Amino acid sequence: MNHSRPNITDTLKKCYPFWEKLTDTQKEQLKTSSYIRDYEPGSFVHSRSEECLGILILLSGQLRTYIQSEEGREVTLFRLGPGEVCTLSAACMMQEITFDIFIESTAAS
Questions:
Q1: Closest CA to 37 of 14, 19, 57
Q2: CB–CB of 91/99 below 8 Å?
Q3: 27 dihedral zone (left: phi>0; alpha: psi -120 to 50; beta)
Q4: What secondary structure, in 3-state letters, does the chain show?
Q5: What separation, in Å, do the N-terminal and C-terminal C-alpha atoms of the chain show?
Q6: Which of these, 23, 51, 47, lies nearest to 35 by C-alpha position?
Q7: Which positions ≥6 away from 87 have C-beta within 8 Å?
Q8: What pLDDT band is residue 41 in, cutting at 50, 70 and 90?
Q9: Pick from 69, 48, 65: which is nearest to 56 by CA?
Q10: Residue 101 and residue 66: Cα distance in Å, rounded?
Q11: CA torsion sign, 109 to 3 to 37 to 7?
């Protein structure tokens, strides 16, 4: 199977309908602050101990976003599939939002 790495520019053009409205400087800034990462099923993409990821765009596979009580009980908020955007992953960038979310990979790409 061919698992070639997607091109970041092509990916951003496809995922962001406003791409063509950005200036060249804005496009370059978005490209240099964007990353394509692979996660194995069962691995954590984000938790309270992880660094802020920003906005996630799922290219393939599946992610589960959930919260966890102090007793360790989990409540799934939603699942993401290919082409979907997780804006909650950027909550860590906003000081006013104080809840901890967890995001884990549940299906391989």
A1: 57
A2: yes
A3: alpha
A4: CCCCCCCHHHHHHHHCCCHHHCCHHHHHHHHHCCCCCCCCCCCEEECCCCCCCCCEECCCCEEEEEEECCCCCEEEEEEECCCCEEHHHHHHHCCCCCCCCEEEEEECC
A5: 12
A6: 51
A7: 55
A8: very high
A9: 65
A10: 6
A11: negative
Question: What interhelical angle do 8-15 and 24-32 show, nearest 10?
Answer: 110
How confident is the model over 49-71, as pLDDT tens digits?
777 777 788 889 999 989 988 89
Q: Which two tokens stand for residue 63?
A: 């992610």
- Two structure tokens written together for 12: 């951003």
Which residue, chain included where needed, has tokens 């995922």? 15
Q: How far is CA 40 from the centre of its chain?
A: 14
